Amino acid sequence: MATRPTTDKVKEALFNIIGPYFDGGTSLDLFAGSGGLSIEAVSRGMANAVLIDRQYQAVKTIKKNIAVTKHPEQFTVYKMDAHKALGILAKKGCRFQLVFLDPPYAKQQIVKDMAAMAERELLADGAIVVAETDQAAQLPTSDWEQFNFIKQQTYGITVLTIYRYQKEL
């Protein structure tokens, strides 16, 4: 009950925007909830997915959902705070080609989270970053720092904002 799964309509629209299929790579879902976005990404060709959530029940749900996939070994789940996870993943030398940021609406720090990922070198050059927020978030709709704005689309109260990370300016 504490999670807010991405609706099928929004999920379908999202993957139509970022590409219906992937050719390998690793995704990061920093506020994974039910794990639906990462499971969908792996089913469309991402090689691996790392899912982070701090809530016990969410992690339990994620693991249950992953168990019914064809390849549960493609998923790594961590029960921890998202910001602590960024430090741990950086120490492990992780690089992500696709990132989902769907924090609780009351705790949106998307710009700060993206800057932290860039600073810790967690993003591969050309990585796609997808932010799912409510309309109050007011994310940048132009290029900023190393992030190129791709598109923003509203679906009811949900807003998808998509960026591409460019390592070298």
UniProtKB/TrEMBL annotation:
Q: Which InterPro entries match?
A: DNA_methylase_N6_adenine_CS (IPR002052), RNA_MeTrfase_RsmD (IPR004398), SAM-dependent_MTases_sf (IPR029063)
Key words, A-Z: Methyltransferase, Transferase
Signal peptide per UniProt: none
> PANTHER family, per this entry?
METHYLTRANSFERASE
- Protein name, per record: RNA methyltransferase, RsmD family
